[in-house]
């Protein structure tokens, strides 16, 4: 009976860690969407971004890089937690 509980808890952890990793990846994708859209606007390509400047785009880039690193660390931590 105790062994069955460990197996089910392991499956729950794996499921939760997979879901969280997907959510973190989604956050990364949303941020990079802004970076790419801003870069296109700076290059003169017409986008729906309202009045982006090179400095504004650079701030999106830095934000996306920092949050990408943080989210990757979260994915690694959650993956380790889920594999216990």
How would you describe what is shown here?
The chain has about 80 residues and is mainly α. The chain has one domain (about 25-84). The chain is built from 2 helices and no strands. It has helices spanning about 1-40, 55-80. It is elongated, with a radius of gyration of 19 Å. The two termini are about 20 Å apart. The model has no long low-confidence stretch (mean pLDDT about 80).
Range of strand content: under 5%
Largest sheet: none
Number of domains: 1
The share of residues in helices is over 70%
As an assembly, this protein is: single chain
Order of helices and strands: HH
Low-confidence segments, ≥5 residues, pLDDT <50?
none
Radius of gyration: 19 Å
- Would you report the number of β strands? 0
* Overall SS class: mainly alpha
* First and last CA, distance: 19 Å
- What spatial form do the alpha-carbon principal axes imply? elongated
Mean residue pLDDT? 79
